[in-house]
Every structure is written in structure tokens, then in C-alpha cells.
Amino acid sequence: MKVVFIGDKDTVTAFRLIGIEGIVVNSPSEMESRLSEVIRERKDVGLILLSDYYATDLMERINELRLKFAIPAITIVPSRRSRGEFKVDYKEVIKSALGLKV
Hints:
Blueprint: E1 2-7, H1 9-17, E2 21-24, H2 28-41, E3 45-51, H3 52-55, H4 59-68, E4 73-77, H5 80-83, H6 90-97
Parallel strand pairs: 1-2, 1-3, 3-4
């Protein structure tokens, strides 16, 4: 199963550098649309990672989708944009999202 990241351009770029497919969005509504599209059309995706930069505005909808669909799993991760200079180890974020011992 594949992992897909949906978020702001800067964070998508970081995920692409570690080999994860990324979809750039520019607003919470665009994130919601792309999230729904991936769930409906991409049966090869087992985990969807969402940038907290836009996802925080969509928590009600995200929780509805989590209850409705066991797969793909949906996880929110810190965004480069919302964290400023704070460095996030995205490999560790992914391990944690997959339930691996970190």
C-alpha cells in the first residue's frame, strides 16, 4: 500500500524528498476535495498524511472520514509552514503514524 501526503507546497516538497507522493493544496477546501478524491479513487493508498496547516480547519470532516473508512488511515502531521524554523523528522512521523516502535 502507498502513502500519500496532502498539504502545503513546502511540506509536500519535504515528503517528496524522502520518496512519498505529495499533492499540493492551497486552502482547507482544496485539501478536503483532494482528500475525498484520494479516498474514492485510489484503492492503492493505505495511509494519507495531512499537513496540519490546513487540516486543523477540517477536523470534523476528517474525523467523519476516519470513522467511515478504516483504510486508508488518515494522520495529521506537522507542517513546515506552521513550524517556522523548527525541524521535524518526517521519517519518525511516518514510523509513528504506521504504529512502528520509534
